[in-house]
Amino acid sequence: MNDIVSAKELAPNIKQFEILAPPVATKVRPGHFVVLQTEEEGERIPLTVVDSNPEKGTVTLVFLEIGASTKKLGKLKQGNRILHFVGPLGNPSEIEKFGQVVCVGGGIGAAAIYPIVKALKAAGNRVISIIGARNKDLLIYEEELRKVSDELYVTTDDGSKGRHGFVSDVLKELLEKGIPIDRVIAVGPAVMMKVISNLTKPFRVKTIVSLNPIMVDATGMCGCCRVYVSGETKFACVDGPEFDGHQVDFDNLLARLRTYVEEEKLSHQMLEKGEG
Ligand SMILES: Cc1cc2nc3c(=O)[nH]c(=O)nc-3n(C[C@H](O)[C@H](O)[C@H](O)COP(=O)(O)OP(=O)(O)OC[C@H]3O[C@@H](n4cnc5c(N)ncnc54)[C@H](O)[C@@H]3O)c2cc1C
Ligand code: FES
User: Fold this and answer.
1) Ligand 1 in contact with 48 (CB < 6 A)?
2) At what angle do helices 68-75 and 261-272 cross, to 10 degrees?
3) For residue 139, how many C-alpha atoms fall within 13 Å in the half-sphere facing its CB?
4) What residue's CA is closest to ligand 1, atom 27?
5) What whole-number distance in Å separates Cα of residue 38 and Cα of residue 22?
6) By the 8 A CB rule, do 45 and 36 touch?
7) Nearest atom (ligand 1) to Cα of 258
8) Which domains are present in the chain?
9) Whole-model pTM?
10) Is 223 in the pocket of ligand 2 (CB under 6 A)?
């Protein structure tokens, strides 16, 4: 059981929890994730660790209430407890001095990219961050990222804040201007990471993406999170979640993410009716 030390709403349907988990807080590195469960029969939810405080023994998670499990999680408040909490899982991000790095965070990915930006900056890189959301109310982690980035670009799909358009439009402009970019790291919806990878490929800029397939055990045993990278089967939970975006079969990933759409709809309807 892990206590929720603080719970905050960052934007509509986006929550931030600080959770007491001393063993995770001391070991976690940028790019790691945890898996949690709110009830014995419930689903296991993988979430990226956005920040940690080893002195307090806490880790910070940011999540979008997208379906039944994350909506149930979002109902928990400060002082409630998480039933099962496992981590840190996955491989940490590769952090080195690369030079100039562009970090792209789409939607909830703006929070997930934060620890990577912080670590890249501390390692001596010049970091350009690009974050985007559908509209200004859904933008998160703008101020946090501004503090740790050398440049920050904000986009909204509807133009209500920052540049009107997608995060990929800004990256395209930077690439076309010939600004030297040694690496791009993108975290967000699979379709966004596909667009970013297709964009950087002709420019031969190494591009790392953090894949988010459906996970179950997150220990490499069930095979549920399999993705195809360079024509080989990889398990995102133990081989990733970060991979070379130019080698990922995104169409397969996008198709697999839609596998349980009907079941997800049903469990959401049950939750709404109070049967979940
Ligand atoms: C390594 C990793 C890190 C992640 N980090 C974050 C994060 O920091 N913040 C955040 O908001 N979300 C994150 N996600 C996605 C999050 O786990 C899913 O949104 C959540 O599990 C959805 O569950 P649900 O029952 O609420 O929604 P459902 O209605 O069950 O599903 C909604 C959508 O979420 C995806 N999904 C469903 N179940 C899973 C599952 N077990 N594993 C992964 N994806 C699933 C599917 O694409 C599905 O279409 C991460 C996923 C992975 C794999
Ligand atoms: S989630 Fe089961 S192998 Fe990765």
Assistant:
1) yes
2) 40
3) 23
4) 67
5) 19
6) yes
7) 49
8) 2-89 (2.40.30.10), 100-257 (3.40.50.80)
9) 0.93
10) yes
Strands 207-210 vs 242-244: parallel, antiparallel or unpaired: antiparallel
31 pocket-lining for ligand 1 (C-beta < 6 Å): no
| Tokens at 186, concatenated | 């993108």
Q: Is the CB of 214 under 6 A from ligand 1?
A: yes
CB atoms within 10 A of CB 6: 13
* Sequence-ordered alpha helix ranges (H) in 164-260: 167-177, 190-200, 236-239, 250-257
Tokens of 78: 């400060």
**Ligand 1 near 33 CB (within 6 A):** yes
Closest CA to 93 of 194, 220, 241: 241
pLDDT at 260 exceeding the cut of 70: no
Going by CA atoms, what residue is nearest to atom 2 of ligand 2? 222
Query: Among the atoms of ligand 1, which is closest to the Cα of residue 65?
Result: 26
**Residue 126 and residue 109 in contact, taking contact as beta carbons nearer than 8 Å:** no
**pLDDT tens digit sequence for 193-227:** 999 999 999 999 999 999 999 999 999 999 999 99
Q: Is 211 in the pocket of ligand 2 (CB under 6 A)?
A: no
| Lowest pLDDT segment from 22-31, 123-132, 168-177, 265-274 | 265-274
CA distances from 181 to 96, 98, 142, 171, 178 (A): 14, 9, 22, 10, 8
Q: Output the six-digit token pair for 53.
A: 């405080």
* pLDDT score for 265: 60
The pLDDT tens digits of the residues spanning 41-54 come to 888 999 999 999 99
